[in-house]
Design goal:
alpha+beta, 247 residues, 5 helices, globular, five-stranded antiparallel beta sheet
């Protein structure tokens, strides 16, 4: 059966520009390495999608609405349903001095931020810099090769998918327990001090309550160990190990 709006599904995909075959995105680590796209700080894993709710580009979303688990699709996403048409009004000439201390370091092809907008430098000269604020794929048709892996049906599967989506740590460090209508989520120690932790918690609870409506409460558990106590406990063991054996 085709998915209904709001179905939570997992997909793998690789996307390439149609007219050049340049691979621009993938959820698969081996594909990223093959095409020199691999980045250590990115989690390569199946993408969680809520069908029909704009979690992916409209062209891809429309195709997923007519798919089912196990399908393999090739989807052409045109600019009108993808990254938009190129807009000449988004290409601007800016005085180099506006870039401040970084002005001497800027070169053609660099990505820079001006007035809280990100653009690509197209020209530098005569005290000015031309910056293109269009999305780099604007005006391009992007082809997605998609593997629809599965639909998440049970509360446990949905919660696991949501946590993998929002927690920026290895999957092995994600832990949760569903007790009736209460969910306990263990926050990994690596992100205790993350500035984004409050936002991460917000989106976890938003998605969890939406997709598992029987949930009534979510507890975020942070456990801090007393490092001094741990060291004290280690010392007697170390001393015993270091002591010479009695004859």
């Amino acid at each position: 059966m085709a998915f209904t709006k709001g179905s939570l599904i997992l997909i793998d995909y690789t996307a390439k520009v149609k007219d050049s075959n340049e691979v621009v995105e993938t959820t698969i680590a081996d594909e990223a390495k093959k095409h020199n796209l691999f980045q250590e700080n990115i989690k390569y894993q199946p993408k969680l999608v809520s069908v029909g709710e704009s979690w992916v580009l409209k062209g891809l979303d429309d195709a997923l609405a007519n798919a089912k688990a196990g399908d393999k699709l090739t989807v052409d996403v045109t600019p009108d349903k993808g990254f938009g048409e190129r807009d000449s009004g988004k290409v601007r000439m800016i005085p180099l001095r506006k870039l401040g201390e970084d002005a001497d370091k800027v070169g053609v092809g660099d990505t820079i931020e001006v007035d809280q907008k990100t653009g690509v430098v197209r020209f530098v000269g005569s005290g000015r810099v031309q910056v293109d604020f269009n999305h780099r794929l604007a005006g391009k048709t992007v082809v997605y090769d998609v593997n629809v892996l599965k639909a998440l049906e049970t509360p446990e599967d949905k919660i696991n998918g949501i946590l993998k989506r929002h927690l920026p740590v290895e999957d092995s460090k994600i832990s949760s327990k569903l007790n009736g209508n209460t969910l306990d989520v263990t926050i990994p120690e690596e992100i205790f001090g993350a500035e984004s932790l409050r936002i991460i918690k917000h989106f976890i609870q938003m998605d969890a309550f939406k997709f598992v409506p029987t949930l009534e409460k979510i507890n975020f558990v942070e456990t801090y160990a007393n490092k001094k106590t741990e060291k004290k406990e280690e010392k007697p063991q170390e001393a015993a190990a270091a002591a010479p054996a009695k004859k």
